[in-house]
Amino acid sequence: MRKNLGLSFQKEGYEVIFICPYDKYSENIKEHFKYINIDVDARGVNPFKDLKTIYQYYTIYKKLKPDIVLQYTIKPNIYGTMVASILKIPTINNIAGLGALFIKQNIFTKLAKFLYKISQAKATKVFFQNKDDFEMFKNEGLVRDEKCDVLPGSGVDVDKFTPVEKKHDGVFIFLLASRMLWEKGIQEFVDAAKIIRAKHKNVEFQLLGPLDTVSSIAISKEQMDIWTTDGCVEYLGSSDDVRLEISKADCIVLPSFYREGTPRILLESASMEKPIITTDNVGCRDVVDDAINGYLCKVRDSQDLAKKMEVMLFLSEDDRSSMGVAGRIKMINEFDEKIVIDKYRSVVKSVLN
Questions:
Q1: CA angle (38, 44, 47) in 5-degree steps
Q2: pLDDT digit string, tens, across residues 127-180
Q3: pLDDT by residue (tens digit) across 294-347?
Q4: How would DSSP label each residue in 245-296?
């Protein structure tokens, strides 16, 4: 997700090092950059594990002595910034959405806000991926306005995600691609699929994305098996390159009530000229101009989602094509990752100079 940003800095003569937990993609990172493993329990609240993470940040940053650190996601943004501040290393943070933690206000939300307030006061620059998150942080006094800026999400590589002509076989495909979390609106998608299937033939509903067998907010394999056995949806598993699945679909759906940054799948799909249906929710609504390149539906409302799906079904092929073209134009003008990269390069040069 940060490959092109890293490569752009390499081209300018910077040494780029990636620090993140090891997984199957870490070997891809090693093909282009130096890589260091770190243990981060992304969703856990075990204080002892977090103390271990903080210590690892300290030992890594102290040894590397980086000129500047670019950080993403909640724990790096908080713990990494605190450590970097002690070592007098400038930091550029990216608040890439607030996730499930900020959907319901509880003691963990209050703790996260407290830690954000302490840590972001020490950050050199704070980027947000949508205006809603920035306004919330500013209004609650978690950040200072003058050190913040809003990015168009992580941007999209419009040269990689290009339109592919779809062969029409009479079957209309709605695709939801994301992590299989309840907060991504998976249940609402399934319920809407049942409503549409009861009224229309030759319509398929596909789910694409990894199952998390540990997290309590994730769809279990048992639940997925029930849905697929019922025949209301087809589960495609996960993919390392979503372009193939996007190209086969007629409409991309993300009924998320998760507090998104700017969903990457929506950017990639719009760049490939696919019309979109998503919720009028933080981050999601930034990608869709309602009735221009897709439709916005109500949050956690499967009936309204089904209604918008039906509207999409009844559009002519030319009208859906026009929506797709409008989406790609929007991506090129507003969400091209070159915009994100240029902002990062400008801030980095400013900080180092």
A1: 80
A2: 999 999 999 999 999 999 999 999 998 999 999 999 999 888 889 999 999 999
A3: 999 999 999 999 999 999 999 999 999 999 999 999 999 999 999 999 999 999
A4: HHHH-SEEEE---SB-SS-HHHHHHHHTT--EEEESSTTTTTT--BTTTEEE
**Which residue shows structure tokens 């695709």?**
175
Q: How many other C-beta atoms can be found within 10 angstroms of the C-beta atom of residue 39?
A: 10
- Rounded to the nearest 10°, the torsion over CA 305, 311, 312, 317 is 180
148 - beta bridge partners? 126
The answer to whether residues 259 and 268 touch, using CB atoms and an 8 Å cutoff, is no
| E strand intervals along the chain | 17-20, 34-37, 69-72, 91-95, 125-128, 148-150, 172-177, 203-208, 234-235, 251-254, 276-279, 294-297
Q: d(Cα 51, Cα 331) in Å, to the nearest integer?
A: 40
93: helix, strand or coil: strand
- Model-level pTM? 0.92
Q: Output the six-digit token pair for 323.
A: 């929506």
Contact (Cβ atoms closer than 8 angstroms) between residue 149 and residue 142 = no
| Identity at 18, one-letter amino acid code | F
Closest CA to 44 of 178, 186, 184, 217: 217
Q: How far apart are CA 134 and CA 162, in angstroms?
A: 30
Q: Could you give the CA distance from residue 152 to residue 137 in angstroms, rounded to a whole number?
A: 17
3-state SS string over 132-170?
HHHHHHHHCCCCCHHHEEECCCCCECCCCCCCCCCCCCC
Both structure tokens of 126: 């704070």
The SS3 call for residue 195 is: helix
